[in-house]
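Hi support team,

I'm opening this ticket because the web form for multi-chain structure prediction keeps timing out on my end. I have pasted the exact lines I submitted so you can reproduce it. The total is 303 residues across two entries, so I didn't expect it to be a heavy job. Is there a limit I'm missing, or should I split the entries? Thanks in advance, R.K.
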Amino acid sequence: MNDLELAQTPSTPAVRMDHKEGRVFMAGDSYPENPFEFFQPIIDWIDTFLKESSRPLAFDLELIYLNTSSIRAMMDIFDRLEEAHQGGRQVNVLWSYDPDNERVGELAEEFKEDCTFPFAIAPRS
Amino acid sequence: MTTPDLFDLREIFDQQQIMVCFNGPINAALIEEIGRALRDYLNHQQEQPSAVADIFAVYIEMTQNIRRYADQHPELAGAASAAIVVSREDGHYVVSAGNVVNPDDGRELLKRVDELAAMDRSELKAFFKAQLRQPREILNGSAGLGLIDMARKASRPLVATVREMDGQRSFLSLRVVL
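Hello R.K., no limit was hit. The queue was backed up. Here is the completed structure from your submission:
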């Protein structure tokens, strides 16, 4: 299985998915014109990781603005993590953000409401 | 045809406190560029980061809805053009956008805007979360999520108006007060 690395653009976040470490990093704004096209490789990577190994998977997020299609895609991702967690897998999310923009924290909180795995929301100091 | 008097045009912009105004064919690159200019302007005005985030979010949802609608209606002349205005009014930011739609779609949107206007904050949140879980085929192409998101960020109910153009086409305007 390969690592996945996408450079940040104005409308898409930086993405680094490290297979060996079991870590996913995403940072920046997300409002691509074709959200499903952008998110599909990310979702495929997660599906493969969860299927092919039993190792923990950790998400380190610094996402800022998500348009509604990206919110939908992130929900699909968190749903997969939730399912894996229910199946006994160790997964966690750490979402850090600039506390000046409280909208990011509110968005993260709404995602967290539907998750029972460890989901930390951390204002950066 | 004569060139509009730029002094008069400027007067109108100043009076109505219009910060951004665009009229013409819109695409993803333009949406991005105008959005960047809008954010830079607002940050420069020392606006609260959360206010900048809300204005930007409403602008993006509105313009991407218009783009998506145009893609789904290549037969509709002028659908790829958008009129976009960001202005200030009584201390509030207002994001408005208009585009050409089928008369039926215009009526449908008016109905949806009315439904959203009747909901309070917690109902809007619950509705948004329920819509998020709709199958993709149902969500696809509908302005559903974007519209609810705008209603959640707005400080007043959304206002939509539809003006008939020529029997086959209507002009839809949507106004969001933040």
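A quick check on our side: Strands of chain B lie at 18-25, 81-89, 92-101, 159-164, 170-177. Let us know if the file doesn't open in your viewer.
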